Amino acid sequence: MLLHFLSSSTASSPLCPRFLLHPNPPASLRFLAMSAAASSSSSRPVRGAAVPVPSLGADEAGAVADEAFQRHTSPSLRRGGTGVAVVWFRNDLRVLDNEALVRAWAASEAILPVFCVDPRVLEGSTHYFGFPKTGALRAQFFIECLGDLKQNLRKKGLDLLVRHGKPEEILPSIAKAVSAHTVGPSAQIVYAHKETCSEELLVERLVRKGLEEVQITQGGTSGQKKPLNPRLQLIWGATMYHIDDLPFTVNNLPDVYTQFRKAVESKSSVRNCSKLPPSLGPLPTSCLDEIGGLGAIPTLESLGLSVTKAGLAAASFAFVKGGESAALGRVHEYFWKKDQLKVYKETRNGMLGPDYSTKFSPWLASGSLSPRYICEEVKRYEKQRVANDSTYWVLFELIWRDYFRFLSVKYGNSIFHLGGPRKVASKWSQDQTLFESWRDGRTGYPLIDANMRELSATGFMSNRGRQIVCSFLVRDMGIDWRLGAEWFETCLLDYDPASNYGNWTYGAGVGNDPREDRYFSIPKQAKTYDPEGEYVAYWLQELGSLAKERRNFPGASYIRQIVPLKFDGGNQKKDQQFNRQRRPNNMYRRQVK
């Protein structure tokens, strides 16, 4: 049984963390975990150099980041605390608009930033089917995020302490060592951003428990000193709209996105980004020797991983680097340099190339980019250039991202359960052959295969592609949606649990909104979104020589179709009957992609 997150709406369910319990899957599926890594290196098209995202040079990207920091710096900020505050970085790998970091600075004399490389996250397995929890591509992106965070902290007078191990073991020992060198109440506070899903919540509780077991004697004379416990201070900072500003409690969150969106747009406001002081220093160097120095950022090799360069070379674009600097560079490039924001709504359903969509999602997922910063930049663009449906639609998508995060609080672990939040009883297959054909891009349907090969090669897939491959897996194949969700968890650069599983429950028809339950006709999708077969020919080179109109319908010129389609798109009445009362184009609205 999968864990149940103990929110007030699910408090009756026991807690069993996803990364601590690994139930035995059916025998026919056990080997999938062993073959998962191998499937990533299967044969792929070989292409020339991919277009980098962002395409800015290092100097230009650095200048963009520096300018963004400068605009959000306030010399009038004052710090009034004492002692040393520890800042525990999690999925918030940024300096700009990091409220935990700014609060720690204001309440202390010095800050020690810490990141714990948790082996359960980077080296563990997914809950049901044992896939690698973090694939090599996302691990590499994460390593780059850490490197950039370290660099940006140095620019602000700090540095990053890196430790490999469990936070609940590392943070109490660091807090004790730091407190032994300082005096003041801030020495007992570890600041961090709040998470919402069960694994992350379990770690929060374990860290809190570990800190409570640390006793530090401070204050008074030698005979009157009183023991103090370090404590964990959690701060909300993952969404565009702050949880405290919602016009309802999370337990009363509407089950229909449109109702949620209209309520927050009319009754709530997006807070401004947190201002930064000119310097965040000093670093408490006096205690570094005792805790073993700053440590080193891991490498892929140290994690036992490697990236297949041939796969990356096949991509039409490539995320040039993880980290806040690249993220800010991409916002600048997409909004201001290339002026793409004004046409986002018209191009967002594309599948090929660097600029049909924002490509912000990997940086949002790692916390390298603040959603509030994107909102501020949209508003600035609307004032200086143009405000239209496209500029609004970026915010519309960010509200979807918020919605899934808040739903993960309301519904807890039910977003990971087979029946989803509504406990829908359905019969699902876990057929090994069918799932492998989907995973490896060998279904016989070019549009499915091209998208799945792109995912394995790059860690990314378009919003449109995600809707299509999800629908095919659960509707046409009848495969357990959790297999798809866990495979996405392995592969996606922009994976986060609330968005990923929230969207898969919607796609499988088990989400909180019963109206979000649609069938995507492969022929119809191909004709609408890849009419000349450009996308499929890019990823399936054998189709390139066919006439454009045949690339998505190659017949005997391509591999045999693994299953027949439930509907072929030719019977409009049947398609409409299946999709009646379903709202279009919202099944996979997880982030701005």
From TrEMBL:
GO annotation (BP), single: photoreactive repair
Cofactor note: Binds 1 5,10-methenyltetrahydrofolate (MTHF) per subunit.
A family per Pfam: DNA_photolyase
Domain spans labelled Photolyase/cryptochrome alpha/beta: 83-222
Name of the molecule in the record: Cryptochrome DASH
UniProt-annotated stretches for the region Disordered: 569-593
Gene Ontology terms, MF aspect: deoxyribodipyrimidine photo-lyase activity; DNA binding; FAD binding
Binding site for FAD: 344, 357-361, 397-404, 494-496
Family: Belongs to the DNA photolyase class-1 family.
InterPro entries named in the record: Cry_DASH (IPR014133), Crypto/Photolyase_FAD-like_sf (IPR036134), Crypto/Photolyase_N_sf (IPR036155), Cryptochr/Photolyase_FAD-bd (IPR005101), Cryptochrome/DNA_photolyase_1 (IPR002081), DNA_photolyase_1_CS_C (IPR018394), DNA_photolyase_N (IPR006050), Rossmann-like_a/b/a_fold (IPR014729)
N-terminal signal peptide: none
